[in-house]
Design goal:
3-stranded antiparallel sheet; 43% helix; alpha+beta
């Protein structure tokens, strides 16, 4: 049997959790509330336990990136991404003409609405997703480099 590539176990685990998670409740009248923006929760980040609906075409920024750009402060990371999203949003209502997509998310993540993803892609949703993927990888590399340069803990 072929050994899974790095990350495949994590993906398989996340998919298994998502399949078992209950669908978010649909309010009376059939309308589904779409979540965008910061995901604030009492559970630890990187634990996908929060079922919700997001607009199709949204981009979920992982909790480690939100914290890293806030220099270890998730709330500050939310503020930075809020600013970035406001600068890139192409107008229109959040989720306008976007069917809801059920996801299972983690506290500390941030859902970027499709209008802003399109802005990051200069008018193209797919290009926006690719630009955000590249940004995530770049931020992770920057965080690793920063952590490597830190002094070790002091000894008494």
């Amino acid at each position: 049997m072929k050994k899974p590539a790095p990350g495949q176990k994590s993906i398989a685990k996340a998919l298994a959790i998502a399949k078992k998670a209950p669908e978010p409740a649909t309010p009376i009248g059939g309308a589904t509330k779409l979540h965008t923006g910061p995901i604030k929760a009492p559970v630890a980040g990187r634990t996908d336990h929060l079922p919700m609906h997001v607009p199709s075409g949204s981009y979920v920024v992982p909790a480690d990136i939100v914290s890293a750009i806030g220099e270890g402060n998730t709330e500050h990371g939310f503020e930075i991404i809020d600013y970035m999203v406001k600068q890139r949003a192409s107008g229109g209502e959040v989720g306008e003409n976007s069917p809801p997509v059920a996801i299972v998310a983690a506290g500390g993540e941030y859902v970027i609405p499709p209008s802003a993803v399109i802005g990051f892609g200069n008018g193209d949703l797919d290009v926006g997703h690719k630009a955000l993927d590249d940004w995530i990888l770049s931020e992770r590399a920057n965080t690793i480099n920063t952590l490597k340069k830190l002094a070790p803990p002091k000894r008494d």
